[in-house]
Specification:
The chain is α+β, with helices and mostly antiparallel strands and about 250 residues long. The protein folds into two domains: about 40 residues, no CATH class; about 210 residues, Galactose-binding domain-like (Jelly Rolls). About 15% of the residues lie in helices and about 30% in strands. The protein is built from two helices and 13 strands. A hairpin with a 6-residue loop joins β9 and β10. The protein is globular and about 65 Å long.
Length: about 250
C-alpha cells in the first residue's frame, strides 16, 4: 500500500507541475496570418491596431487603452510616427510558426516625427500598449527583438496595468543595439522581461512601452517578434488531488 501511495503522490505532483509549464499568451511577427493577425504595411497605411499573429492580443497605437495616438499623414511619410520596415529572425519561435523571413515588411517602426527647429521629436514620450488576457496564467514573461538608429529612441520603459489607467513599473531597456545584426551572434540576444506577477490571473492585462530620447524626425526604433508567455495556473482539481494524496500518505504512515 505504501508503494501505491507513493505512485499516487508522484502522479499528482506530475499533474500539478505539468499544468504549471509556460504557455504562449500572444506573439507578433507582423507577417504570419495562419491563425489570423495583422500584417504590417508601410506608412501611410501602417495599422494603429495590430492583432497578434499567434495566441490572442492586440497592440494599440491609436490613443485607446492607455496608448498614445501616433501621427501618420494621409499621404506620403513626412513626419510619420509609425512605419513598417524590414525585420529579423532574432527571437522568432519557429516551433509555433513565427516567420524568419527578413525581407520585405516585417518589423514595426516607431519614428521621431515632427521636430521643430531646436526642438524635440513629437513621438518622444508616446506609448504603445499591448492588451491581452492573463486569466488562468501567472508570471508573465515578454521578449522581443529591437534596434535603434543613431538618432532614434534610446530608452524603452515598460509598465503594466490591470485597468489601463493605473500603471506599475516593469523595467527599462536603455541599451538598445544599433542593428538587428548586432543581436544575431549565437545564441541570439533579445530583450527579456520575466517574472511579472502583478498581472497574475487578470482578465484584462496591459503592458505599456514608452519611448524617449529620439533626436530627429526620422530617428527610430524597430521592433520584431514580440512573445508574451506565462505559467498556466494549476487547476483547483489538480491541487486538491495533491493535497488529498498527501493526506492519505500521512494517515498510512501513522
Amino acid at each position: 500500500m505504501k508503494n501505491i501511495n507513493t505512485i499516487l503522490a508522484v502522479g499528482a505532483m506530475a499533474a500539478v507541475c505539468g499544468a504549471a509549464e509556460a504557455a504562449l499568451v500572444a506573439a507578433w511577427d507582423f507577417q504570419t496570418t495562419t491563425n489570423g493577425g495583422t500584417v504590417l504595411v508601410p506608412a501611410p497605411s501602417t495599422p494603429k491596431v495590430i492583432l497578434a499573429n499567434f495566441g490572442a492580443g492586440t497592440i494599440y497605437l491609436d490613443g485607446t487603452n492607455g496608448s498614445s495616438n501616433y501621427f501618420q499623414p494621409a499621404t506620403g511619410i513626412s513626419n510619420t510616427e509609425i512605419n513598417g520596415f524590414g525585420g529579423t529572425s532574432v527571437n522568432a519561435d519557429v516551433s509555433i510558426g513565427m516567420s524568419t523571413v527578413t525581407t520585405g515588411i516585417g518589423a514595426l517602426a516607431i519614428v521621431g516625427g515632427l521636430t521643430p527647429s531646436g526642438g524635440t521629436p513629437a513621438a518622444n514620450g508616446k506609448s504603445m500598449v499591448f492588451k491581452f488576457s492573463m486569466a488562468g496564467f501567472s508570471n508573465l514573461s515578454m521578449s522581443y527583438a529591437t534596434q535603434r538608429t543613431a538618432t532614434g529612441f534610446n530608452s524603452q520603459v515598460l509598465e503594466y496595468s490591470v485597468d489601463g489607467v493605473t500603471w506599475a513599473a516593469i523595467g527599462a531597456n536603455n541599451s538598445i543595439q544599433s542593428s538587428f545584426s548586432a543581436l544575431s551572434t549565437p545564441p541570439g540576444i533579445a530583450t527579456v522581461f520575466g517574472g511579472i506577477s502583478g498581472l497574475d490571473n487578470a482578465s484584462d492585462a496591459y503592458v505599456r512601452m514608452r519611448l524617449t530620447g529620439a533626436t530627429s524626425a526620422t530617428g527610430n526604433n524597430r521592433f520584431d517578434n514580440f512573445i508574451f508567455s506565462a505559467d498556466v495556473i494549476p487547476a483547483p482539481g489538480a491541487v486538491a488531488l495533491l493535497g488529498v494524496t498527501g493526506l492519505v500518505g500521512m494517515r498510512r504512515r501513522r
